[in-house]
Design goal:
Layout lengths: L5 E4 L8 E7 L3 H8 E2 L10 E9 L4 E11 L10 E7 L2 H12 L4 E2 L4 H8 L5 H12 L3 H11 L2 H25 L11 H20 L1 H9 L1 E6 L6 H9 L17 E7 L2 E7 L9 H16 L2 E7 L6 H9 L5 E6 L9 H8 L4 E3 L8 H13 L14 H22 L4 H19 L5 H8 L7
Parallel strand pairs: 1-7, 8-10, 8-11, 11-12, 12-13
Antiparallel strand pairs: 1-2, 2-6, 3-4, 4-5, 5-6, 9-10
Helix pairs in contact: 4-5, 6-7, 6-15, 7-14, 14-15
C-alpha cells in the first residue's frame, strides 16, 4: 500500500477551457486545503465540488481561480483520497498550480501511477487497468465499446471462472493423492479430467478465434494503398479520410513518401498508408519511396490495390498481383467514369477470389461497396461488440496461446494414460498463464513495465 501523495496534470498539454491537476494519497485533501481559499476542504462532504482560489504560499497572492473536487476513500478510482483541481486551461496557469502543489508535499506521479494504485489497491485487475489505456487510445466507437466492456470486467470474469474450474480440478487430484483412504472424496478419473480440460480448452479457443478482430479494433488495420502511379491512390486516401491529405495531380510519381492517416470504416479502424507508386524509376528520391513502399507491403494487414479502368493491364500490374499473393487484399478498379480499356475477366482471374470493387472516386461512386468489402473481409458482416468477449491486447493473446498449449500438453498426457499428478502440472501451468492476464500471477517487473506505458496523469 502506497503512503505518499502523488500529483500530475490529467488533461492534454495545450490551451483549452479547463485543465485538471489531480492528487491521490493520504495527504491529498490536507495539502489542497492549506492552499485553498474558500470552504474548509477538510470538512466538506465527499464527492462535492467547491469554488475558490489557490494561494501561492511564497507570496500569499492568488495563483489561480479554481473549482476543487474532493473525493474521499475508498469510493475513488485509486481507493485513496483524491482531489481534482479544475483551473484555466492555459499552460502557465496549470503549471503554476502544479508547481505550488509539488512544493507543498506531493510528488510528481510516474506514468500510469494513478491506475497502478487502483490495481494495487484492488480497485481493478490488470486486464481492466490495460483497458483504461485502450479506452484512451480508441479510434472508433466499436473499439471504445470493447474497451469499456473490458473495464467493466467482462474478460476478467471469464478468466476468473476458467481459473476456478481448473483450480477445483487440481484440488480434486491433490485430495485423491494425499488422502486416498477417504471414500467420500470424489475420485478424479482420467475421464473427468479429460472432460474438464476439454471444456476450458474450447473456451480459450473461442477467445482466440475472435482475438484477431479484437486486435484490429484495438490497434487498427495496417492498410497499404498500392498501384502504379496515377491510378488514383491519393484520391482514394482523400476519399476515405474525407479531406485532402495527399497531393493529387496528373503527374505520375507525385507521392514520393509514405503518408499515414487513421480512418474509421464501418467501425473498423484503418491505419491507412498511401505509398509511392511501385514502378521502375531513375529518380533517386522516388526510388527511395518505391523501396519503402515494398517494405510497407510486408508489414500490412490489408492491401488496397488500385487499377485504372481506362488503362490496359500491364506487366507491372501482374507483378504486383504476384507480390501480394497470399495476403489479404481488395482490388479497386478506379476511373469507371472513363472508357473501359481494362480486361476485367483477367483481373478477376488474377485476384483469385479476393474482392474486386469498381469505383469512380471523382464522382464518389462505389465507395459504399468498398467500405462493405473492407468490413466483411475481416468481420464477415456487422461487428458484434454486444455479446462477444473480445481479446484485443497482444499480451493477453500470447498468454492465451500459452495456456492453450499447456492444456493440449495435459490432454496429450491423458491420452497416453499418464498419472494424474503428472498431468496436473500442465493444468496448473494453464491456471498460472490465465492468472497473468488479470495480474494474479504477474511479476512486479511486468506490472511496472505495463504501467510505464500510460500517460502521466492517468
Amino acid at each position: 500500500m502506497e503512503t505518499d501523495t502523488i500529483t500530475a496534470i490529467s488533461t492534454p498539454v495545450g490551451e483549452g477551457a479547463i485543465a485538471i491537476v489531480r492528487l491521490s494519497g493520504p495527504e491529498a485533501i490536507p495539502i489542497t486545503a492549506k492552499l485553498f481559499k474558500g470552504k474548509n476542504l477538510r470538512k466538506v462532504e465527499s464527492h462535492t465540488i467547491h469554488y475558490g482560489k489557490i494561494m501561492d504560499p511564497q507570496t500569499n497572492e492568488v495563483a489561480e481561480e479554481v473549482m476543487v473536487s474532493v473525493m474521499r476513500s475508498p469510493k475513488t478510482f485509486t481507493r485513496e483520497d483524491v482531489v481534482e483541481i479544475n483551473c484555466h486551461g492555459g499552460m502557465v496557469a496549470v503549471n503554476r498550480v502544479l508547481e505550488i502543489i509539488l512544493g507543498s508535499g506531493a510528488r510528481l506521479a510516474e506514468p500510469g501511477e494513478f491506475t497502478k494504485r487502483a490495481f494495487l489497491n484492488g480497485r481493478i485487475d490488470l486486464s481492466q487497468a490495460e483497458a483504461v489505456m485502450d479506452l484512451i487510445r480508441a479510434k472508433t466507437d466499436k473499439a471504445m465499446s470493447v474497451a469499456l466492456k473490458q473495464m467493466d470486467g467482462r474478460l476478467s470474469g471469464l478468466i476468473e471462472r476458467l481459473r476456478q474450474d481448473l483450480l477445483e480440478t487440481v484440488a480434486h487430484v491433490e485430495v485423491n493423492i494425499d488422502y486416498p483412504e477417504y471414500d467420500d472424496v470424489e475420485e478424479m478419473s482420467h475421464d473427468t479430467m479429460r472432460k474438464k480440460t476439454k471444456e476450458v480448452h474450447a473456451e480459450i479457443e473461442n477467445l482466440l478465434q475472435v482475438a484477431k478482430q479484437g486486435k484490429i479494433l484495438r490497434e487498427g488495420l495496417a492498410t497499404a494503398i498500392i498501384g502504379r502511379p496515377n491510378v488514383g491512390k491519393s484520391s482514394l486516401m482523400n476519399t476515405l479520410v474525407q479531406e485532402n491529405k495527399a497531393i493529387v495531380t496528373e503527374v505520375p510519381g507525385t507521392t514520393r513518401d509514405i503518408i499515414e492517416e487513421y480512418v474509421n470504416v464501418r467501425g473498423v479502424p484503418l491505419r491507412l498508408v498511401d505509398t509511392a507508386g511501385i514502378r521502375e524509376t531513375e529518380d533517386i528520391v522516388e526510388k527511395i519511396g518505391v523501396e519503402r513502399s515494398r517494405q510497407v507491403l510486408k508489414e500490412s494487414d490489408l492491401i488496397l490495390f488500385v487499377l485504372n479502368y481506362n488503362d490496359v493491364l500491364t506487366e507491372e500490374d501482374e507483378k504486383l498481383f504476384k507480390a501480394i499473393q497470399g495476403l489479404d487484399y481488395i482490388v479497386i478498379i478506379n476511373k469507371t467514369d472513363l472508357d473501359q480499356k481494362l480486361d476485367l475477366a483477367r483481373v478477376k482471374e488474377l485476384a483469385e477470389g479476393n474482392p474486386v470493387v469498381t469505383t469512380s472516386l471523382i464522382e464518389e461512386a462505389g465507395v459504399d461497396e468498398l467500405e462493405k468489402a473492407i468490413s466483411t473481409t475481416f468481420f464477415e458482416g456487422e461487428i458484434d461488440t454486444g455479446d462477444l468477449t473480445y481479446v484485443s491486447n497482444v499480451r493477453h493473446i500470447q498468454l492465451l496461446k500459452q495456456a492453450k498449449q499447456a492444456l493440449e500438453d495435459a490432454m496429450e498426457g491423458l491420452k497416453l494414460e499418464m498419472p494424474l499428478d503428472i498431468v496436473q502440472i500442465d493444468v496448473t501451468r494453464t491456471w498460472e498463464f490465465l492468472g497473468e492476464i488479470i495480474g494474479d500471477t504477474a511479476s512486479d517487473s511486468l506490472i511496472d513495465q505495463l504501467f510505464s506505458q500510460f500517460c502521466l496523469g492517468k
